[in-house]
Specification:
164 residues; Dihydrofolate Reductase, subunit A; eight-stranded mixed sheet; two-stranded antiparallel ribbon; 10 strands; binds NADP nicotinamide-adenine-dinucleotide phosphate; DHFR; NADP
């Protein structure tokens, strides 16, 4: 199963200056629950924005750079096709961004876990438009707004419709 997981602002913004903009612990918890124990697939820029390797997850990085020097244990792929093919045999692999890589993997994902954040942010990285008709909304769960999670948000699961 190949999924993508993303938090998207109301205006489709997902990041600025190669960092995340908002702090939403509920979403970080959701991300951790989903991805722990699985492969996470990311673009070279998102990889470089991580403060450290995320524990208990195998990191796959997409880059066109044939000389890319990755830390031990990190797998390198030079195309979304190659990574999607390798992920096909896994129980679950998660595409975790960023913008270029979400766009490149959209045709290959079966499931999308989209955290919709009800706020407009200024940013320079955007989640791509996608055909809502190609997916069924399987569940929508409202996140709890509190003093640590100040933006209204919901967790939406999209499942790709079977092709006819
Ligand atoms: N809100 C969220 O849930 C979320 C999640 C993740 C990231 N983000 C944000 O997204 C932003 C980063 O996104 P981004 O679009 O700038 O970068 P990105 O998608 O993380 O990485 C882009 C890089 O991936 C490689 N790449 C992309 N397409 C490729 C292809 N078809 N074949 C081979 N390699 C390919 C290239 O690496 P080379 O240049 O090395 O060839 C490219 O420069 C940051 O602001 C980050 O904070 C947000």
């Amino acid at each position: 199963m190949l999924a993508l997981i993303v938090a998207v602002a109301h205006n489709r913004v997902i990041g600025k200056d190669n960092t995340l903009i908002w702090h939403l612990p509920n979403d970080l918890k959701f991300f951790k629950e989903k991805t722990t124990g699985h492969v996470i697939i990311m673009g070279r820029k998102t990889f470089e924005s991580l403060p450290f390797l995320l524990p208990n997850r195998e990191h796959w990085v997409i880059t066109r750079d044939k000389g890319f020097d990755a830390p031990e244990g990190v797998k390198i792929f030079h195309s979304p096709e190659a990574a999607s093919e390798a992920a096909r045999v896994l129980d679950a692999a998660y595409v975790i961004g960023g913008a270029q890589v979400y766009e490149a993997f959209l045709p290959y994902v079966d499931t999308m876990y989209i955290t919709e954040v009800d706020h407009e942010f200024e940013g320079d990285a955007f989640f791509p438009e996608f055909s809502e008709e190609a997916f069924t909304i399987e569940s929508v769960v409202d996140g709890v707004v509190d003093e640590k999670n100040t933006y209204p948000h919901r967790f939406v699961t999209y499942r790709r419709k079977a092709s006819k």
